[in-house]
Amino acid sequence: MAEVNKYACIMAGGLGKRFWPLSRRSRPKHLIPVVGETSLLRQTAERLVSHVGWSGIVVVTNAAQFHAVREELPEIDEGRILAEPCGRNTAACIGLCLRWIMGQDTGESLVGFFPSDHLIPDRSGFTACLSKAWEVAQSGNVITFGIRPSRPETGYGYIEAGDPLPGFDDGDICHVRGFFEKPELETAKEWVRNGQFLWNSGMFVAKIRVLWQEIERFLPSLAQGLVDLGDDFSYNGLQEKSVQYGRLPRISIDYGVMEKSDLLALVKADFSWDDLGSWEAASGYWPEVGNGNRAVGEEVALIECEGCRISAAGILVALVGLKDVVVIQTDDALLVCPRERTQDVKRLVDQLELEEKDRYL
Fold first, then answer.
1. What's the pTM value of the predicted model, to 2 decimals?
2. DSSP alpha helices (H): ranges in the chain?
3. Which of 2, 34, 250, 281 gives the lowest tally of CB atoms within 10 Å of its CB?
4. For position 166, what pLDDT does the model report?
5. Are residues 334 and 262 in the same domain?
């Protein structure tokens, strides 16, 4: 593959409501060590450095998290951290990054987009897959990553693989037949047996010029709105345009562009991957402390407990006679819920917002 400049954009503007009370507005899920000793954002950046170097990483976050991102990634120049004045979903986030790169480099360079809050323990497998994606993207395709499912998962979107892409006959690079929302359990089981349905990872790679032209083609009002913002992408420059930015269409890149583009190709990925959508998902990676219980943090005492998940910070957390319960303790809040209800933590945060209990958000 001929050498071209490469950029990696880390999308780091999420709120991580399902990881309350550890996740807060100013330091959400991707800025805390949910799994491992470093933040998910840090882990994401370190996976990408070998491909693009620190100077090739661009982070799109929001104003409330800008300074925390700078502290977490001091290797990245402040000018490469773009702070959205408000969230407008992934299409605007991606378009903003493309506009910044086009002011620095040629449209023939390559760019990859990566969520900041995914867990990918298999770094060598990820590297091999991304290297393949860089190569295919040079042909003018927009490459998305489909993860081969290891289980019938109802919490993920799926991509159905089509015929192999011409010129790539190893079976791992193919056309996309369709996108599908989160399925019912029986459908998910059938899709796993089928073998052509893969988890939608939310990661993709393309030429800068190609992806921008697809945004212009399918989301012309968004493209024009981003052009109208001008060329000042500094923190202050973007915050001064908060009203203008807030008028941009709120739409995901999948729905707005990917599901419509005829340039889309799929790389089948075998590396281990988890989007860590809840405490239940994350706690599966915590150390076992006996009888199916898992715990992180400070001291934990358990009597006749089974299958519990505990995160303790600064004090002893003691449980007696409980089964399949999640306990997350911080300095100012305590969450207790059944393991099967961890997705509902977002509802709890929404309620706190309605009650204006901002000191806990």
1. 0.93
2. 40-52, 66-72, 89-102, 123-137, 185-194, 208-218, 220-228, 235-239, 242-246, 253, 279-283, 345-354
3. 2
4. 85
5. no
